[in-house]
């Protein structure tokens, strides 16, 4: 969090008074103001010799005072905007953390069956039973009649299995993953679509081959078998099993009714509407944008005044300021993306209806991504530099990566496979990955490539000629739309993408990475999660 302290401005003091459910993470006013001082004075504190050694800064030395002013204004505007964006998104995250804490306290089924799912939310709850990351061990308990012998397990959504337990009044259990599922995708209790109880020693092959051999593993007759599952005193299951998976599983594996979970889920205390979420976010944005307009004007007033002076001393100071602002923008990039991803996760956590459909647990037999866009011709990004500009090390500039979750990561080299404007786009099969592993949408270009052209200016009477370099950027990529289908179902569509993937020097809003902040809240994903036709062949 130290970097975040340095990159936020004084408006975060107001944020802390508006909403904070994470006191040990909240920046103090002293740290925030120290960060503001750094934003204004950090570049000037450097010696010119040290600053001149920074990679890629020699381009500033060849600019005229007027060109430096333009560059300063552009970077200042970008930096100012990103400072405000980071402050607003961080404030929205803290407000959603507070709302999530309230939701978990009032609605038992809003908690996850495996606490690992909380780890990336970064809500520092400190209630009893929870760690500083918000992770907890849900006290789920099972009651079976004391006259029932043997050992049992519960299975949730076909993928999450409990530890082995015996009959008793309040036996605590914990769930773990089974098969292709992931702990960080563990459902909330209210997202359980199927819950089964089975004998712990069940072997399907033995049941089919010789039922007599395993007759001691039979469950009690369904009509006389009582099961109670609770979470913090809230009954999730109560009564007899309602069915069995199929004929061969009869008396060995039962399906439990979920009416109690559904009733709790549909109660008013468990509902967080999209209108409420948007209201929380919009109010914070409106408050901070309104009060910060004057602050931004005052923050750079002194620097602007110095920028108007065209003396050599002023030019050096302006260069130093530009370098400092560039460094802030670079340092903030990862933190800003993290906060955006955190906002998306919190929004999803507060709206669980986006992942309750039966299609969530199906394997991805066909994933299709259709992207419209183009590779742009190389563009002149710097001119008349004294030295050539080296391309950043690492990464293939022609590679485009499309991430839909930690288990769904697709990379294509556009120099070998043109996926842009292709009718089929990218098509892959991921049968060991469930639809529920589609968590977010992130697109990134994996590298940058510069091309230097050498030139020479003639001197007077042939003397004093100057060698210079014009720098061009290759493999800038423009994306205009994207459509994603899973198993034939449309899960995301954005016909107005308008993204430019290139280095920051390309200007024009260029970036190397983009994340869709509300992927699982889009209408197509929600529609799929509400379908109940999971018995159809794919």
Layout of secondary structure:
Blueprint: H1 2-7, H2 11-18, H3 29-45, H4 48-52, H5 58-61, H6 65-106, E1 140-144, E2 151-156, E3 160-162, E4 165-166, E5 168-173, E6 175-177, E7 195-199, H7 204-209, E8 227-231, E9 234-239, E10 253-256, H8 259-265, H9 274-299, H10 301-307, H11 312-350, E11 363-375, E12 379-385, E13 399-405, E14 408-413, E15 426-434, E16 441-445, E17 449-457, E18 466-474, E19 477-486, E20 489-494, E21 499-501, E22 513-516, H12 523-529
Antiparallel strand pairs: 1-5, 1-8, 2-3, 2-4, 2-7, 3-6, 7-10, 8-9, 11-15, 11-19, 12-18, 13-14, 13-16, 16-22, 17-18, 19-20, 19-21
Description of the structure:
Helices cover 32% and strands 25% of the residues. It has twelve helices and 22 strands. It has helices at residues 2-7, 11-18, 29-45, 48-52, 58-61, 65-106, 204-209, 259-265, 274-299, 301-307, 312-350, 523-529; strands spanning 140-144, 151-156, 160-162, 165-166, 168-173, 175-177, 195-199, 227-231, 234-239, 253-256, 363-375, 379-385, 399-405, 408-413, 426-434, 441-445, 449-457, 466-474, 477-486, 489-494, 499-501, 513-516. The two termini are 46 Å apart. Strands 2, 3, 4, 6, 7 and 10 form a six-stranded antiparallel sheet that branches. Strands 11, 15, 19, 20 and 21 form a five-stranded antiparallel sheet that branches. A hairpin with a 2-residue loop joins strand 13 (399-405) and strand 14. The radius of gyration is 29 Å and the shape is elongated. The protein is α+β, with helices and mostly antiparallel strands and 538 residues long.
């Amino acid at each position: 969090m130290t970097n975040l302290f340095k990159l936020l401005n004084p408006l975060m003091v107001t944020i802390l008074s508006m909403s904070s459910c994470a006191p040990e993470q909240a920046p103090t006013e002293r740290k925030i103001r120290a960060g503001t001082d750094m934003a204004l004075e950090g570049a000037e504190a450097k010696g010119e010799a040290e600053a001149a050694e920074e990679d890629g800064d020699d381009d500033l030395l060849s600019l005229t005072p007027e060109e430096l002013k333009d560059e300063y204004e552009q970077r200042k505007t970008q930096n100012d905007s990103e400072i405000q964006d980071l402050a607003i998104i961080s404030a929205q995250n803290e407000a959603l953390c507070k709302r999530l804490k309230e939701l978990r306290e009032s609605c038992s089924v809003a908690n996850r069956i495996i606490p690992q799912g909380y780890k990336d939310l970064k809500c520092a709850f400190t209630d009893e039973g929870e760690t500083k990351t918000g992770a907890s061990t849900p006290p789920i308990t099972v009651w079976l009649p004391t006259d029932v012998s043997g050992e049992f397990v519960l299975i949730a959504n076909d993928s999450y299995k409990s530890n082995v337990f015996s009959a008793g009044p309040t036996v605590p259990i914990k769930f773990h993953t089974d098969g292709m599922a992931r702990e960080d995708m563990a459902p909330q209790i209210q997202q359980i679509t199927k819950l089964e109880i089975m004998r712990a020693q069940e072997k399907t092959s033995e049941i089919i081959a010789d039922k007599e051999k395993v007759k001691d593993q039979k469950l009690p007759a369904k009509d006389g078998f009582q099961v109670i599952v609770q979470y913090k005193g809230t009954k999730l299951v109560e009564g007899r099993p309602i069915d069995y998976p199929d004929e061969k599983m009869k008396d060995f594996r039962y399906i439990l009714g979920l009416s109690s979970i559904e009733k709790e889920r549909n109660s008013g205390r468990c509902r967080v509407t999209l209108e409420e979420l948007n209201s929380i976010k919009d109010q914070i944005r409106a408050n901070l944008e309104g009060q910060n307009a004057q602050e931004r004007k005052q923050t750079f007033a002194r620097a602007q005044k110095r920028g108007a002076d065209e003396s050599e001393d002023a030019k050096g100071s302006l260069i130093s300021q530009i370098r400092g602002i560039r460094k802030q923008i670079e340092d903030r990039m990862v933190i800003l993306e993290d906060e955006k991803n955190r906002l998306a996760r919190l929004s999803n956590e507060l709206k669980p209806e986006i992942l309750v459909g039966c299609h969530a647990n199906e394997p991805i037999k066909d994933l299709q991504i259709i992207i419209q866009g183009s590779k742009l011709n190389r563009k002149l990004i710097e001119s008349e530099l004294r030295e050539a500009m080296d391309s950043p090390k690492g990464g293939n500039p022609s590679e485009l990566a499309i991430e839909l979750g930690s288990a769904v990561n697709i990379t294509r080299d556009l120099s070998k496979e043109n996926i842009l404007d292709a009718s089929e786009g990218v098509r892959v099969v991921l049968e060991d990955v469930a639809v529920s592993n589609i968590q977010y949408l992130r697109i990134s270009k994996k590298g940058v490539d510069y091309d230097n052209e050498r030139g020479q200016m003639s001197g007077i009477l042939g003397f004093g000629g100057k060698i210079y370099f014009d720098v061009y950027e290759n493999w800038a990529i423009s994306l205009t739309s994207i459509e994603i289908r899973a198993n034939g179902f449309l899960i995301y569509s954005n016909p107005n993408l308008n993204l430019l993937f290139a280095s920051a020097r390309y200007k024009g809003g260029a970036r190397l990475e983009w994340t869709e902040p509300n992927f699982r809240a889009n209408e197509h994903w929600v529609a799929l999660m509400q379908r109940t036709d999971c018995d159809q062949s794919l």
